[in-house]
């Protein structure tokens, strides 16, 4: 969430972000915000004034109560003082009722203000390029060798079917369209990828491994920026009031919610595996054959908590961490800097990593590496105490896929397929598969 003071002082900047990210809707009428803030301040000021009057009355009541104790033998005077006390108490109650009404108004106004701010996206960083669609994303560089074949390469769903490692028909029978089974060496290869990703990030890159809950509360989803905008895309367990996570970013971002960290402990670096659940995946349209668009998939996620001064250096380091995996696997990939129109709701800047899939001759996104600055930290009330002893500040949060499946599997199968229909297993994964070098038909 953006700081309300920033929004009020930079309404045109925020309106431009709404326009750039195509996020304007009925909830984001910023013209109301100054009026709400004026009403809020007026309610606070009037309540404070009445509280001062109430305190003054309380003192007067105390003085008269003190006098009444000395008038036990002067009934007429005692009666008059008690009448004064009763009148002052009546005035005090009327003030208290008015104060409570004003505080109720203040709460209502702040709730309306916060509801509006919850729908306002993060401001793009100055280095995020302009654009009106994904066509305006900037290809920063292309790495690795494009695979060459002396035969017509098969699509991943053909390879999976012929090798007996992918079963979408039974997945649909069990759970419906957009669900699938991996079988045998297909399941083992996916497990190998997850284990290798985690090991590299832990041992090489210095991340601490977490295994998070796969179901979270509405408050947790709000903190990472998924709510309220993406609520309809979530799977919901109504009886327990819990949502299936769309990414491990959600629970890991909430891990330190409402805490104040010490600057000396930053950056904090976490890596987590999770299954991910997304209702909108597999919708009618392109990429519905095979496992490019599915409702459940596996992903390893990196997350960092940093100071504002170091967050963009850490962003570049996180990009390198994700790229390293693609280089080790020998894949042809490219780094794409997202334009403002394609930038995520909570992100200030984002790189996508896309791997090449030869059968369809297309690029598949397998990682988004994003800097959210303090947008998520404000929602989760996550701060750090500067080393110089200054006032606590909000941390910057960053996250990146490291990496996402099953698109990685699609690229690996298609890029490593052989003329005989088998699939070579990349060397880094073989130790996780008992030294096996290829997946062949049984």
Which structural traits does this protein have?
442 residues, 18 strands, BirA Bifunctional Protein, domain 2, eight-stranded mixed beta sheet, 19% strand, alpha+beta, 41% helix, 2 domains
Distance between the termini: 54 Å
**Main β-sheet, spatial strand arrangement:** 1-11-12-13-16-10-9-4
Indicate the overall shape: elongated
Main beta-sheet annotation: 8 strands, mixed
Q: Given the structure, what is the number of helices?
A: 13
- Alpha carbon gyration radius: 29 Å
Overall structural class, as computed from helix and strand content, comes to alpha+beta
CATH uppermost class of the largest domain: Alpha Beta
Write a structural description.
With 442 residues, the protein is of the alpha+beta class. The chain has two domains: 4-118; 134-439, BirA Bifunctional Protein, domain 2 (2-Layer Sandwich), CATH 3.30.930.10. The chain has 13 helices and 18 strands. The longest helix has 44 residues, at 75-118. The chain starts with a helix and ends with a strand. The mean pLDDT is 94.
Question: Can you give me a brief rundown of this structure?
Answer:
This protein is α+β, with helices and mostly antiparallel strands. It has helices spanning 4-9, 11-20, 32-69, 75-118, 156-163, 168-175, 184-203, 218-224, 249-253, 311-328, 375-380, 407-415, 427-430; strands spanning 138-143, 166-167, 181-182, 208-210, 215-216, 236-237, 242-244, 260-262, 268-277, 296-306, 333-337, 349-357, 362-371, 383-385, 393-394, 396-404, 423-424, 438-439.
